[in-house]
Amino acid sequence: MYNYLLDKERLRYCYQCGKCSSGCDVNRLDGSFQPHRLLHLISIGAIDKVLKSADIWKCTTCFTCSERCPQGIRVTDILWNMRAMAVKSGHIPELLVHQREVLLKAGRLYSVGPIDNKKRGKAGLNAIPEEHPVIAKIFEISEVED
User: Fold this and answer.
1) Spatial distance between the Cα atoms of 35 and 86, rounded to a whole number of angstroms
2) CA distance 6 to 80
3) Same structural domain for residues 68 and 48?
4) 3-state SS record for 46-78
5) 108 pLDDT more than 50
6) Does residue 72 share a domain with residue 13?
7) 127 and 117 in contact (C-beta within 8 Å)?
8) One domain for residues 68 and 100
9) In a domain, 146, yes or no
10) How confident is the model over 21-35, as pLDDT tens digits?
11) In Å, how far are 91, 114, 120 from 41, measured between CA atoms?
12) Is the same domain home to 40 and 75?
C-alpha cells in the first residue's frame, strides 16, 4: 500500500512553506489541521502517528492544497492514501464505522425511522423503507470487502 505518493524521495520536495495549510478551508475552521505538518510526519517516517491521527479524516478533499503546492505534491491524494492505510490497519473513527453499518443496512448514510416516515406522510410523501440492502448488494456484486 505504501506507493509512490508516500515515497520519501518525492516528499523531500516539500519544503514546509505552508501554502497547502494556509489555503485550506478546514484549517480556517480548525487551526490544528495543517496538511504540511502531516506531510512532514510522513516524510520522517511517523506513519503510525499519522494513521492514528484524527486529522487525516478532517480533509474535505477540495484539492486546494494540491493546487497551491509550488512543488506539485499531490497532498489530497496522499491524505486519501493515508485514510486507506488507516482503514486497513483498523484505525477508523467510530462515526465512520457507524455510517458504514447504516449505509450497508439502509442504503443511505442516515437511518430513516418511524418519525421520519410520519413527517413524510403528513407532507403527502410515500414512506421510505427503513432497510434497503441495495448498497450491500452493490458491494457484494463488485466484490468489495465490507
Assistant:
1) 16
2) 11
3) yes
4) CHHHHHCCHHHHCCCCCCHHHHHCCCCCCHHHH
5) yes
6) yes
7) yes
8) no
9) no
10) 999 999 999 999 999
11) 17, 47, 49
12) yes
